[in-house]
């Protein structure tokens, strides 16, 4: 599960993917387990839920390069695009509204496009979190 955003700009609507991952890590009781992983240039936390192992990932790059971290982590943890969930902001959704999208185009989102390019696939499931338009 990759929370897309701009690592240096936490707290902004554009980095809501990372905020969702922070919340998920707290709910899974692994918030103290975040560690910097230089191999994929990201903060990583591992969790187990109902026997399923999860890799939580917050890329330490700008949004338009998030895919490099996601692809590196996929290689490290032997994951295919179909195993990856992207959590990202969506300007076209009202603030706080969420939707799940199964694959497809990036719809103009630079972080998602970066992931599609780096993984050579658009199969990733996306959790789109509404941030509204300014």
UniProtKB/TrEMBL annotation:
One of its GO terms (molecular function) is peptidyl-tRNA hydrolase activity. InterPro entries: Pept_tRNA_hydro, Pept_tRNA_hydro_sf. Pfam families: Pept_tRNA_hydro. Keywords: Hydrolase, RNA-binding, tRNA-binding. The keyword Transferase does not apply. It comes from the Eukaryota. NCBIfam families: pth. This is PTH hydrolase. The lineage of its organism: Eukaryota, Metazoa, Chordata, Craniata, Vertebrata.
